[in-house]
Structure formats: C-alpha cells, structure tokens
C-alpha cells in the first residue's frame, strides 16, 4: 500500500506506516504524539484508547481493570488502524502504553500480517520524574492513583520494552524536542 506524501526524503514516497509511542503514564506520549503529527507530512493522530472506550459500552464483557485485557481491544486496534490507513494513507501516530508483552506481540504481529510497517518508540523517564509529572497533572486528576499504581508494572516491563522498541529518555527534554528526535529518526530530512 503506497501513498504519495508531500515533502522530500524517505517520506516523499512513503509506504503507509504506524509510529507507536509506548511507555508509562507521565512519559509524554500524548504530548509528543500531538507535536509529531505537525512535523511529519500526512501524519494522523489515532488514540487506541478510544477503541477501549467504545468496548466499555458493550454489555456482557467481563469486568477487567484495563480494557487491554479484552482480546477484542487488541484485534480492533489493529483492524481500525489498518482501515484508517487504507482510507487516508500516510502515517498514524499512536500513543498507547502496552505493558503486557503478549499483548504487544499480538498487536505487532497483527500489524505485520496487515502489511503495515511499524516504528515502535518507548518514551522513558526515571521514576521520580514520572511521579512528579503524574502528581502535577491537572487534566485528569481522577486517574492519578491508577497511573501511580502502574509504575511498578512499567519498571517490570522495561526489559522487554527496550528490546522491542527504540528508547528515548524524556526526563530532561520537552515533548517538542522528543517529537523532533522521532521525526529525524523516521526521516533525517525532516
């Protein structure tokens, strides 16, 4: 699946692709994703959480603490991304923490089988920085404790995450700078 994209360099005749921003809460995934969309020609922001929010409206699904535990979420994220790329082309920038290795393998395999190239970046910061960012977030105060409670899971997952993705330390840099680094990794001419 090819699409013509404005610009020069590697993205000028880019095959559609996904840039997945992984990492725990407070690492800067959403802010970086929004910055990144403005830097990459024909990039589109897609939040996989929206698929989970949709599934929450379906009666009869088992109670889980995280919608990622529903197998349909993982399959629908892949299918939705595939359908969106077929429709609009370009690059999907997807910020989403996936801390269960098996779930990541399902998503990665599904995207590969759909023929969609994937660049997986893990946005990382030390625990003190992450805690400060989570505690100072005034946008979603209700999620604060849930996010703090997931820091140990991120710590446990970091070994496989760093093997599966390109790690970028976000502790001392702004989301804008992280986005520029990712854009340059995708296409050095950007």
From TrEMBL:
Keywords: ATP-binding, Nucleotide-binding. GO terms for molecular function: ATP binding. It comes from the Bacteria. InterPro entries: P-loop_NTPase. It comes from Planotetraspora mira. This is ATP-binding protein.
